[in-house]
Design goal:
It is an enzyme of class 1 (oxidoreductase). This protein has 221 residues and is of the alpha/beta class. It contains 6 helices and 7 strands. It has a 7-stranded parallel β-sheet with strand order 3-2-1-4-5-6-7, sandwiched between helices.
Length: 221
Amino acid sequence: MTTTAIIGAGPGLGAAIARRFGGEGHSVALIARNQDRLDALAAELAEIGITARGYVANVRDTASVREALDRATQELGAIEVLTYNPLPQKEFLRPVLETTPEDLVGAAEFSIYAPVAAVHQVVQGMRFLGAGTILFINGDSAVRYNASYAGTSIAFAGQTAYGQMLHETLQPEGIHVGQLIIPRGIIPGDATHDPDVLAGVLWNMHTTRGEFRRYADTLDN
């Protein structure tokens, strides 16, 4: 059975991704900071026939990310799909003149170091299989900087560059790396920004491959 790992498995988009990919027959590794919430989500998924387990990790601690993915691989099987979508912390969302070097350390740990650690943990298995998907999920500051959110703008730029390099490097080996840009955030009930709609877009990116970047909606001028 194919295993999907969701880093940032919260009650909104993370849960929707789990339902969509799990509904397509994938086992799901739920990765976030709170074991009780992960267990509750896994139980909800089990009620609709989806195999899911929760693994605790803090994305600002790369060792915990690697350990969670290692445990998931041992218990659920090789990870063939990785999604990275944790919610940025408030200190990353300060205006540029209020952003400190310490803020940027945290933003880099969150948006660069952790994704690199996660990819390193799963990519060799994908290369062995000759297949796999890695999906980064970002707000529009990943493609258009916002001086009001300096930390994420700077760190997302690094994550975007990393993802694009992975896309170009791994595409010949049958591994798709993509990025979904969600302008204006996640909006339950919205025609384009609802979590279930976005999970469907991610499933389409996984199955159709194609270009590196997809937009959930047009960017505001």
